[in-house]
From TrEMBL:
This is Glyoxylate/hydroxypyruvate reductase A. The lineage of its organism: Bacteria, Pseudomonadati, Pseudomonadota, Gammaproteobacteria, Oceanospirillales. It comes from the Bacteria. PROSITE patterns: D_2_HYDROXYACID_DH_1. Residues 104-275 form the D-isomer specific 2-hydroxyacid dehydrogenase NAD-binding domain. Keywords: NAD, Oxidoreductase. It comes from Salinicola acroporae. Pfam families: 2-Hacid_dh_C. CDD domains: GDH_like_2.
Amino acid sequence: MTIIVSHPHREKTDWWIKQLQALLPNWTIRPIDDPGDADAVTYAVVWKPATGAFLPFPNLKAIVSLGAGIDHVLADVELPRRVPIIRTVGTDLTQRMREYVALHVLRHHRDMPTITANQRERHWQQLVVPPATGRTVGIMGLGNLGGSAALTLAALGFETLGWSRTKREIEGVTTYAGDAGFDGFISNCEILVCLLPLTEATAGILDAELFARLPRGASVINAGRGQHLVEADLVAALDDGQLSHATLDVFHVEPLPSEHPFWSHPRITVTPHIASLIDAPTGSRIVAANIERFEQTGHVDDLADATRGY
Ligand code: NDP
């Protein structure tokens, strides 16, 4: 009964081992590069595992992703497809994402980037914006995070639209689904929030074609994954005024390299993948509880569907 832990940063691997060992005293918990008897390994707790990382462990019962997304696990071309993947989600994660989305939607809605730039110029300009009830915000992805954020935006008074793969019902939110619903959704979003998982279908979805379908002057917030965005298309849409501003929390390469033009673009706000980080003590309790439940019942609520990609 061994659990292996893999994280790109060694100190974080050690931290997770310590936390999980305290919560699961009957288990042996070891780093992936020093697993002991490989046949005894039945669970892997991972963030961004290396390609082929799971091949030495024939008896894996489940892989636990240290996050809501599983794209970092599915990126392993040698992943044993028979092994279920458990996501780590919880109320802390949704609460934090609600805060991030509310913060940045309100910031775009009230045109804070212009007000901040005006302050630097000592320029007094009273911008008049409509109330939230006169502003339409759209969320791509209505799962744990997007669905919860949509409720928050609707409670703030925004005209809130949501788009998902299959039709969702959310009180106070006008919902659309699939390709058929996309045009009705996208053509009205003055502020667009991406909270999709990264899959084959969603990679590169934030591109020139999508930006052209938004109302002129729209803003975009991407807190899904960096690979949702075609970076050059974003810069072109900002430069020609089709988009007025973008807030980006996730990037193709993280940390965002210091020479990357996004850092200094006047109409891009960069946040360092902090929209909703897993709170470490809460996260370890969720991981431990999921492993125990899966061991006892063979099921947990947070099972991802690898064939769907999320
Ligand atoms: P869920 O799996 O709960 O929800 C995903 C949503 O996206 C569902 O509504 C799903 O539709 C929809 N969706 C998936 N594929 C498509 C598609 N092709 N077209 C339209 N809609 C689609 O995910 P979470 O809400 O938990 O997380 C979403 C993502 O947020 C994660 O995968 C991760 O990448 C990112 N994330 C970012 C964080 C950050 O700090 N920036 C923190 C945590 C996660 P349906 O409802 O029909 O299934």
